[in-house]
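Incident log, support desk, overnight shift.

02:14 A customer reports that sequence design results differ from what the structure should imply. Their input is reproduced verbatim below. On-call engineer (initials T.W.) acknowledged and began investigating.
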């Protein structure tokens, strides 16, 4: 019985020793320096004139004006007709 315990203990030690490994050293690469000059281009953005509205931004009325109404499904159906698909595309 003692021989069995010694052999089992030796097997456990070898098994756990085999699981341990040293990580491979990581070679650090030298940082790459880009020597090309940075050319900044002037960007001209044309904007439309601001039109004042009495509708508050982010309100439900603003959503209805800019996107559209709700999409209603048919009873027990999940399909959308082309009109509803257009509304969903505007809302995306």
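02:41 Re-run completed on a clean worker. Output:
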């Amino acid at each position: 019985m003692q021989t069995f315990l010694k052999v089992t203990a030796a097997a456990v030690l070898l098994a756990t020793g085999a699981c341990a490994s040293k990580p491979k050293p990581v070679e650090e690469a030298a940082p790459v320096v880009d020597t090309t000059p940075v050319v900044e281009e002037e960007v001209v953005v044309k904007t439309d004139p601001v039109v004042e509205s009495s509708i508050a931004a982010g309100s439900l009325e603003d959503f209805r004006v800019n996107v559209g109404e709700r999409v209603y499904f048919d009873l027990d159906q999940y399909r959308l007709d082309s009109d509803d698909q257009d509304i969903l595309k505007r809302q995306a």
